[in-house]
Write a structure and sequence with these properties.
Layout (H helix, E strand, L loop, with lengths): L1 H4 L13 H7 L5 E2 L9 H11 L3 H11 L6 E3 L2 E6 L5 E6 L4 E5 L5 E9 L5 E9 L5 E10 L4 E4 L15 E5 L7 E6 L6 E7 L4 E8 L3 E3 L6 E3 L5 E9 L2 E8 L11 E7 L2 E8 L3 E9 L12 E7 L4 E7 L2 E12 L5 E10 L3 H8 L3 E5 L6 E5 L5
Parallel strand pairs: 13-26, 14-19
Antiparallel strand pairs: 1-9, 2-3, 3-4, 4-5, 5-6, 6-7, 7-8, 8-9, 10-11, 11-12, 12-13, 14-15, 16-17, 16-26, 17-18, 18-19, 20-21, 20-25, 21-22, 22-23, 23-24
Length: 385
Amino acid sequence: MTCILAMGAGSGNALALNNAKVDSLWRQKTISVKNGGQAPDVMTLLRAFNEALPTWVVGEVLEQQKKPVPGTKRNGTTLLYENNQEDELRILIDPKNGYACYESLTDVDQMSCCVWRRSNGHRIFAISLYEQHVMPQNLLCWYDYDPQTQTMKPERSPVDDYQKPSSVVEVGWTLPEKGTDFIINEYSPFYPTVRRIYTWDGMRPQFSRIQMEDFEYQEFGDGEWTKASGEGFKDVAFVDLDGYPLLCLRKAKDSEDQERDDMLILAEFKGKMQTVAISDTFNRIRGFFHVKPEQDAPWTGEEVVAYTSDMMHTNYFVVVKEGLIRYIVTESPVTDEDDVEIGWEPKIIGYGSKDESIHIIHASVADHVEIDPQWIPFEFYGQKE
């Protein structure tokens, strides 16, 4: 690690800018590229960027290209330095694939950049700058390189047009080390990591599909654990329920005669993914609704109740608040010795008490909440693309 810091182009550069300063400047700057020509490589464009907006971490990469440190592996024009000790430092310079990066577990700064060739003879140059603070600062700068003027002009990126499914979702992105796919990564406390894949169409990355980290879920708090990737789900939707997301998965219909889609709605319960509602040939979603606060009731009115039933006449009431399942109530018919229904028996699963279950079952319904999933095809990590 010491030998990298001693290279002198980065940490000693008094003109180096932090991410906040770069963010305030880059959209207003057209950057001249010295000796850019018709087909500049990634390092030529990176050098021009650093001359206009110098940063410590880019300086380190440029110095590594100029004077590789001991232990650097060379393969043609590709340079790779890896220190697998405690800092896990990696510096890659790969002009052939149009990529360079600086990655470390201990340095607060990270960097990656890449180039795409446009069908009109231009180039896209993208650079991702990361700083670790109490609140990490992740910055993506996106440029069009014009070979006629040998300049880079700021341009909108896929991140500029992306809308988070919920305010609680954290967003990152991945530039292609090889290939051309651009990826937006969603990190949520309420569902597994999601990748939104953008494929190159010759001029820009276009959204194509979603990948989701594989996970297990449990049915209504006490059922069998099931691996979601083995259930044949083909579509995903992220429903914002009063500012918090629910994860919806859907299977392909077996036939046109099938009455409705097989749909599963999930949320977090005790740190795991749990069923909120099921719609299939056996279960039907009856609705989502708020419940009015009542005297001695265990809620504030901000909770939403998902109400479903199955063919065995068992009702399920799943209480969701702030994107988390708080407790689950089942209500089953009670019969006498002649098998005649004489009432209903509430049962609570997970948090809560019998009194709470009775409150939920007899609560007056307020503000109905519509669930209208916008379905997107997806695949789980590890499945064949």
